Amino acid sequence: MRFEGCIAMVTGAGSGLGAQTARALSAEGAVVVLSDVDGAAAARVAQDLPKAWSAALDVSDAAAVQAHVDAICARHGRLDLAVNNAGIAHGLALIEDTDMAAFDAVIAVNLRGAFACLRAQLPVMKAQGSGAIVMLASAAGLAGAGRLAAYAASKHGVVGLARSAADEAGRSGVRINAICPAFTETPMLEGLTTALTERYGAAGARDRLSARMPLGRTAETGEIVQAVLWALDPQNSFLTGAAIPIDGGLTAI
Ligand SMILES: NC(=O)c1ccc[n+]([C@@H]2O[C@H](COP(=O)([O-])OP(=O)(O)OC[C@H]3O[C@@H](n4cnc5c(N)ncnc54)[C@H](O)[C@@H]3O)[C@@H](O)[C@H]2O)c1
Fold first, then answer.
1. pLDDT tens-digit series, residues 22-46
2. Fold for domain 7-182+220-244?
3. Which residues are catalytic?
């Protein structure tokens, strides 16, 4: 029970990595506050977790993010852990074929949303003198990703935020790290690979992704979530400002 009694905020908790992270934190004793732009999806995950509650939250709405953090503090008096996980991708496309609207949407959720979360969470954690935050970046936050340029730009920005926040908050006892997964089996990956699936079939699409990975396969959600919990773990007290690839070796080559 590494997180017994800790108050934890997880964004984008209605699906995929966010939902699995919320379940894992709850299983290790945390009181988890789940949020998602799809409030019903967050509520469905929360209903199975003891002491958890949920809210509808669009992370690109900075005022709503502030109100959500205020509500957590009003109810629990503190915020110990945060997983800034909400994110979206865009369809695979060359830069010249990517709509500006798609670029703006990805930046609004992935980068502006991550900034808005930090902006609301850090004052609380700095004032209490403790806290740990994980930002869900991506292997595409560490290396370029052709046909995913807007997404990669947003995730490079998330890595920059994590490193900068670590510098600002470390002396106040707050640690911020970025976890950088590669292709992980969630609904996001299904959306990303729609074009590949249409062309090669579902198995063929997976084969093409797997062929790029030194481990020769995509990741299961649990393989990423265990790293998120490891980075949050109070025993990991000297880890901050790190951008950690959990990517089957993709960024090693
Ligand atoms: N799956 C992968 O291959 C992969 C790889 C690298 C990084 N990531 C990152 O991991 C994170 C989680 O992705 P996932 O694979 O679980 O995706 P997912 O699509 O399964 O889940 C993302 C969740 O975020 C929510 N969301 C979308 N826009 C939102 C907004 N504006 N405000 C609040 N919530 C919003 C969605 O409703 C959804 O529940 C994302 O930041 C993603 O970029 C995923």
1. 999 999 999 999 999 999 999 999 9
2. Rossmann fold (3.40.50)
3. 151
